[in-house]
Amino acid sequence: MTIDRRTFLTATGALAAGSALGLSMRSAAAQETLTGVTYLPPSYADLAYGSQGFVDFVNENHADAVAIDFYDSGRLLSADEQLPALRSGNIDFMFHTTSYITRSLPILGITGLPGVVGPLFENPDRMKRGTPLFQLVEEELKKNGLTVLSLGGGLLEPEYIWSTDASPVRNLDDIRGKRIRVVSFEATKAVEDFGGGAVRIPSSELYLALQRGTIDAAVANISTINGRSIQEQAKHVYRLPVTAFSIGIFVQTDRWEALDEPVRNAFLAGAEWFDENSARAANVDYFEKQYWPAFVEQGIEVIDPTEEELARFAEVSANVRTSWINEVGTEVGERAIALAMGQDA
């Protein structure tokens, strides 16, 4: 590891603290401090539950091996800065939503493919650590010098279409001619395939964009809707699984392999906790038990697509999947989709 001023201060600070507490030099030197980041703020309690829980788990249960210096809310790095910082070695690990980095790491697009994310969300065990799909993603990321420790144990609830009273979207045909907010490439293609105009707007500007009529609707996860109070503007939700994402723990492979075994074991134990709890807590404890009942009580119209509409959506969105397969390679892409759909590959 490159010794810079920050590393030096961290190491000398640990030694000084150890001496003050009467610890042996060996114990102080054995503990390594690793720096991790996420751009998500604690106010997104549903999404932050897993990342903060991982940090707390490792710090509380493996303090003899490693200490985590953790920065949330983009305090150290913005969302766009995290991946370059990880690759350059300026941070040791990151939590990141997959939808933000599929252009840099195409294999992660499997978490956002229209026609695939619905079945994958409904069967979270297909994405857990050690499964064939997880291992395939892991292998492909290593070709880019990265290692994924967990993808949260499953997808977060898919992103649906939330629309205003002035321009409700209740079926596939209603998408045509609408200006719809999107974030990911996969959602952009899906909206355009049905004649909608895709507009990239960050979540921080979404409330005003709907209020002013800049857009008619938004493709968004329920966490964004709740966290930004979008339910005050969006009065209809068409629960078509347009796209989705997961939250992963990523490390640089060379750095990971150079860590002492007790440090790696501590992180792997934390990754197991994250895998069991991150997506589950968000999807069940927050979304299912809290947010949806509150939204229904507030009078939001919830429209579920028919089986025919889901089939039509999957058929029309086939070009998005084909484009992704061409990007990651035919063998890898077809195998990943088959595994996500619960088929033998």
From TrEMBL:
<dbReference type="InterPro" id="IPR006311">
    <property type="entry name" value="TAT_signal"/>
</dbReference>
<dbReference type="GO" id="GO:0055085">
    <property type="term" value="P:transmembrane transport"/>
</dbReference>
<dbReference type="InterPro" id="IPR018389">
    <property type="entry name" value="DctP_fam"/>
</dbReference>
<dbReference type="InterPro" id="IPR038404">
    <property type="entry name" value="TRAP_DctP_sf"/>
</dbReference>
<protein>
    <submittedName>
        <fullName>C4-dicarboxylate ABC transporter substrate-binding protein</fullName>
    </submittedName>
</protein>
<keyword id="KW-0732">Signal</keyword>
<dbReference type="Pfam" id="PF03480">
    <property type="entry name" value="DctP"/>
</dbReference>
<feature type="signal peptide">
    <location>
        <begin position="1"/>
        <end position="30"/>
    </location>
</feature>
